């Protein structure tokens, strides 16, 4: 019984986390997830760090 309760609680926390991460995407018109690529980050460009796609 405690295993089922802990699995349900973990699923609830994961669902809340996904919802909170997607607030901008779901509720802002034109919202999108931020990119994770190095070539889109100005600070990494300034330091000379590039993306493997740019090679």
Secondary structure layout plus pairing:
Layout: H1 2-21, H2 23-27, H3 42-46
Overview of this protein structure:
- It is built from 3 helices and no strands.
- It has helices spanning 2-21, 23-27, 42-46.
- The longest helix is centred in the N-terminal third of the chain and has 20 residues, at 2-21.
- It starts with a helix and ends in a 9-residue tail after the last helix.
Fraction of residues in H or I helices: 40-55%
Shape label: elongated
Quote the distance from N terminus to C terminus: 54 Å
Number of strands: 0
What is the number of helices? Answer: 3
Major sheet summary line = none
User: What's the pLDDT, averaged over the residues?
Assistant: 83
Helix and strand pattern = HHH
Regions with pLDDT < 50 over 5+ consecutive residues? none
Roughly how many Å is the radius of gyration? 18 Å
Please report which band the strand proportion falls in: under 5%, 5-15%, 15-25%, 25-35%, 35-45% or over 45%: under 5%
Secondary-structure-based class equals mainly alpha
What's the short story on this structure?
This protein is mostly helical. The protein has helices at residues 2-21, 23-27, 42-46.
Features:
55 residues; mainly alpha; 3 helices; elongated
